[in-house]
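Lecture 7 notes: from sequence to structure.
We start with the chain below.
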Amino acid sequence: MIIRRFCSRAILSDLTVPPPNPQRLLRAAVLGLPNAGKSTLVNQLVGRNVAGVSPKPHTTRSQALGVFTEGDHQVVLIDTPGVVSLQYGRKMKFSKPFVTGPKRSTDEADLMLVMIDASDRYTRFKLNEQLLKIMKEVNLPTSLVINKVDLLGYKQLLLKIVDSINSQSTAHPFNEVFMISALTGDGVDKLKDYLLDNTKPCDWLYDVHTYSNQSLEDQLAEVVREKLFKHLHKEIPYSIKQRLVICEERDDVLYIHKKLTCTKSSQVSIVVGSGGKTVKAIADEAQSHMESLLSRPVQLILSVNHSNK
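Predicted structure tokens for the same chain:
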């Protein structure tokens, strides 16, 4: 029996406060290659973790929303899976929604942010063909965000990157160019001001105290998933399935039991680790993250099993 006495509540949106008038809204789609730092940027703009972050590519598997509200301005950030070609998607056996997610995210967007990883010497000088195709098809106001500038050795290289990217987007030129470090927050305030300045008169989509479209259960799953990617390697963290067994309050402590199911029996010992060290490290870090997210004591138990299904 699955107990969800607490996790069924919506995350961080318990308080209903009458919003000021007039309301203004902007929906911005964040696009880029895998591991460009899209989720880190969304977290930085929102001011809390609403999107899973990992140094491994393809960890954002579905569209997630981050929301921040200042005064009468609300900005909804659409964090998407990394842009990949249809051929690559078939090769990696990604689902169709995963491959088409970045394009679909623009359907309800007012503006696009295209992110480039300045630290990746293989991709930083070139706009991905799939990204260019999306930019041309949707014809939305688009700004270029050069990320991870803190990892560059000298400014001249950064200017070369900007010139190279701009030269490839003459058919759909960028409105603005931002140079940031999503990890440290350097330059993010200017981007945040730009987004707020581009809001238009429109009813808000979310309550002022809502920061994500994900339920608490989804958020907790993202926390565990982030730690799985940190401690496990190769295909293992991608294939593990989570199931919530218990999520309930006991004496002001939130007790959570999640079952982690591996696709191969040989993976179980790897996830558990010698003497249970690996799964304990995952649980301890995830529990600490959850306590920070919820501002309350949490006790997390992770059990590991195997299933061929």
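Points to note: The longest strand covers residues 241-250. The chain has a mean pLDDT of 81.
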